N-acyltransferase
Amino acid sequence: MPTLRVHDSPADLAPDAWNRLLAASARPTPFMRHEYLQALHDSGSAVAKTGWRPSFLSVWENGQLLAACPAYLKTHSYGEYVFDWAWADAYHRHGLSYYPKLLVAVPFTPVPGSRLLAVDADARALLAQALRALAKETEASSLHVLFGDEADQAALAAAGCSARAGVQFHWTAEGDADFAGFLARLQRDKRKKIQQEQRRVREAGVVFEAATGADLVTEDWDFFYRCYQQTYREHHSKPYLSRDFFARMASDMPDNWLLFTARRDGERVAVSLLALDPERRAAFGRYWGAVEHIPNLHFDACYYQPLAWCIANGYERFEGGAQGEHKMARGLMPTPTASSHWLAHPSFADAVNDFLTREGEAMSGYIDELNDHAPFKAKDAADAAS
């Protein structure tokens, strides 16, 4: 008979066993690798002290790991990118505690993918039901599973969770030979805008270099982290991730990172960092920063250089991260995302379910409207929306 276990550290689970489950999932990403989650823990980035108390859940039978997921008891809603601040406020206005809540997600990482890792549908269903039980046992107000795949959503719906719709902006390959070919498919005004922005960056004397894997040295990571801190400083906040986290990435997952460095007169002025899934030919925009302001540099570093690199290296997908209608003008098209939610309080659950139904209908219409304004020429826009 299967048994359930709760773990206060990813280290309690064998990396090989975890990663085997991930590799067999419908939509694996590098961010769900054991090494990534362990680095978040060991670097102090996602631990109880920062409001992320690990409560990883696993299902076992005869010594075999059947299913597992990264779960956290949260004391806030920062670093999630699926916003429930209004729900928390409503709880507090009625004298109820919204925190702790039980969250299944990759901390600080709004990348869609498999969350409930399992050997089969039965094990996934058991894991989903166990999450509901864990939420009750820990007296959490609610359960939230963010950016899960379709199998996750189905198992959670059967366990009584409600779906929440969202949207991100992704680029998918259309057989372009190079970046110029990609630009040629865009509507004239969009193409000219991009060319103008890139020209202004070049006229400012900026050149880019790209480095992956073992080509990145400590000095590269140090400058990246300086820029990463600067971005948060400009938004009057503190970085979620420590320098030690990125040191662990350089050591444990070097082949999953791509760094674009912008130089002017030989001096570094800005960086953008992408995560890579070489096996599935996917790239993920993650972080950016600059030590001085140069007009249009952000767009070039975060969109045009990555897109050109993806096309040149045969990558099939580039995910631009959370939110951002402005990404459409750069050729990234709206892509639906989903999360799953369960609230313990019956009255609030009814209210939230009603809200999610109305929000989902509005989101569907919003995505249709976005597709009607695709940046591509007529034929290519129809292909991108299909």
Remarks:
- The two ends are 45 Å apart (CA to CA).
